[in-house]
């Protein structure tokens, strides 16, 4: 049980402050980028163009300046070359629009799959002119469509390209962690899933702890060091599932927004914003655009919270610098999609892959809906953040990346786990924040 503050201790603790810089301008969609008059081919071309310079840097670092880099159309015979391109993963189980059409004509319904990878999947590499099947030392099960890559190898008699080695775009390590003299914390939480009054007690308890309304003086002093709360999506719960939708593939039904849940969310957030800075991101099931990058939730949803200057509606993905520590993350759609199209199941392993690939969401737009960008790709990573997070993960987890420079954080669904995470800005250490074990 959380100890009640019934003692005569009248200590008053002042909320710690922090500097804040938002870096998510590239995730804001202007009218030109939101136009669907063009196709997505230019998006892949832009991604490859942006990644090519980063790939050349990695090629020189790994194979030396004498590496024989050629385009697919310029390869002759079985010479050993390095080819730069974009991976396309051929998958028999990949969802098809033809299946949806068959449903509309009352034909055989297709069973739902949550995972689409299969042992006979194979990879192809394509550039601006052509594509070739890859074989050899590259695992189709740990790659997805949309990854930019450089492969070293040769063309076999069959016409396939045998991969001896491969590398991804070079990503810079984050800047040196700023030196803070005191501990300050950022609270990371996701998946409130508010629906018809469910899950209110754990959420209210979380808010009361952060705002200092419960707990002894030691706890209050601790939580007064929380300088910002980041809510990583899915704050509003889904409607009741349709029986057929749970068994068969179907177009998403448009369920009405539960205005009561929105009001409850605003009430909760306003309590937080009265005491601490709050950033709220949209998620997969929130009333926001389904396409990535998701625009911020509309401010009219928060008439009470918006009165506070500490409250911000932000985009998904999220990118901001807090006291010199850069945070980059998403509400989890990109990680969930990669899990469905590969055999990588652990959230942190997938996050590590996206850092290796220098891209947050390589499966967009193939299987992850996004805007048809023309001259840029906002998901490309040229420099690593200090903290890289994803919301609505199946379980809580965190660890440093392979090069020990990035703290990767998988934020669980609060509705399921009643758990959040506190990140120390001084050390990047994580403290799990379990509000309660069980709600009776």
UniProtKB/TrEMBL annotation:
GO terms for cellular component: delta DNA polymerase complex. GO terms for molecular function: DNA binding. InterPro entries: DNA_pol_a/d/e_bsu, DNA_pol_D_N, DNA_pol_delta/II_ssu, PolD2_C. Its main location: nucleus. The keyword Nucleus applies. Pfam families: DNA_pol_D_N (PF18018), DNA_pol_E_B (PF04042). Keywords: DNA replication, Nucleus. Residues 39-165 form the DNA polymerase delta subunit OB-fold domain. This is DNA polymerase delta subunit 2. The gene is pold2.
